[in-house]
Design goal:
This protein has about 150 residues and is α+β, with helices and mostly antiparallel strands. It is built from 3 helices and 6 strands. About 30% of the residues lie in helices and about 35% in strands. InterPro entries: KH_dom-like_a/b, OsmC/Ohr_fam, OsmC/Ohrsf.
């Protein structure tokens, strides 16, 4: 496999239930395995947020390329986990809330579908192991974006 197809990272125990992940690109993130009183997201929460971040990047980029005047994009994520160990996700849902000036629902639908089916590596990888669904809402904005 070519070197540019590889990603590298480390995760080190930082005491208690905390771990620090460091990406090969030099960024750090804190994980906490204590879901009740933790100081950071759990690894499963991080996985859920990774799907949302990956898809959001795609959706915003596609809408911008389509000259849609997006002022805000938020994805609300929900993940259902099985009751047995390991407590894997069996369903994840991503609901996009796209705010903008004269934003076309057809463009948002297209952007969400392209992300889900073609571009979002995280979501597409997760689809091989579970059900991943997507929906969206367009929220009109009275303000036209700058630029």
């Amino acid at each position: 496999m070519a070197e540019n197809n590889q990603l590298h990272a480390t995760v080190s125990w930082a005491g208690d239930s905390n771990f620090i992940g460091r990406s090969g690109s030099g960024h750090a993130v804190v994980f906490d395995s204590n879901k009740d009183n933790g100081v950071a997201p759990t690894p499963m929460e991080m996985l859920l947020m990774s799907a949302g971040a990956c898809s959001s990047v795609d959706v915003v980029s596609i809408l911008q390329k389509a000259k849609q005047q997006v002022t805000h994009c938020r994805v609300v994520l929900s993940g259902e986990r099985v009751d047995s160990v390991p407590r894997v996700f069996d369903k994840i849902h991503l609901h996009f809330e796209v705010t903008g000036f004269n934003v076309s629902e057809k463009h948002v639908e297209r952007a969400v579908n392209l992300s889900a089916e073609k571009y979002c590596s995280v979501s597409i990888m997760l689809q091989k192991a579970m059900t991943v669904t997507h929906s969206f809402t367009v929220i009109p904005s009275e303000l036209q974006p700058q630029g």
